Amino acid sequence: MVDSTTVLLVFVTLLTAVFIWSRRTYVYWQRRRVKFVQPVHLLGNLKDVLWLRTSFPLLLRDYYFDPLFKDEPVVGIYLFHQPALLIRDLNLLGTILVEDFVSFSTRFSKCDKRVDKLAANSLFFVRNPEWREIRTRLSPVFSSGKIKQMFALMEEVLSLV
User: Fold this and answer.
1) Which residues fall within 8 angstroms of residue 159, CB to CB, at 6 or more apart?
2) Mind listing the GO biological process terms from this record (predicted)?
């Protein structure tokens, strides 16, 4: 038979282990000297989303326009226990998406291919190596010459609206 002291000891040990793990996880951005949004243990920065106070895109918008991070090119956030990076600098974003994609190929968002085939094959949800294949197919469409040719057509369409 298990007595109450043993149960209490196991409970306190588990609680301590979770707290230490959580504390170690939530110093990721601090160790890398990146300014970050202070997380809540086990929930990260998603507390307001989980309690339906706001939506995830609005939460990201609030972090993006937060005056504390006005001069920062990147902001660290936590999606539950997983660290994520919110990019605020457009030049840095272009560098990441074009030149350094291999280092940033894993994304938080996912899309089920069986449910939504169109979104699952978009550049925002697909991962390597499918991403590279789609990008090589789309790159010629967005060359500077093609964009210049489309500009007159876009101006014409906008004048009709």
Assistant:
1) none
2) insecticide catabolic process; response to DDT
Residue with tokens 């109450």: 4
- Is residue 131 within 8 A of residue 123, CB to CB? The reply is yes
> 151 Cβ partners below 8 Å, 6+ apart?
none
Distance CA 30, CA 105 (A): 23
**Is 53 in the same domain as 10?**
yes
pLDDT digits (tens, 9 = 90+) for 46-100: 999 999 999 999 999 999 999 999 999 999 999 988 899 899 998 998 888 777 7
List the domain range (segments joined by +) for residue 152.
105-161
Q: Residue 77: what are its φ and ψ, rounded to 5°?
A: -135, 170
Cis peptide leading into residue 67 (ω within 30°): no
User: Alpha helix locations (H) across 26-143?
Assistant: 28-31, 47-50, 56-64, 90-98, 117-120, 130-138
42-58 per-position pLDDT tens digit: 888 999 999 999 999 99
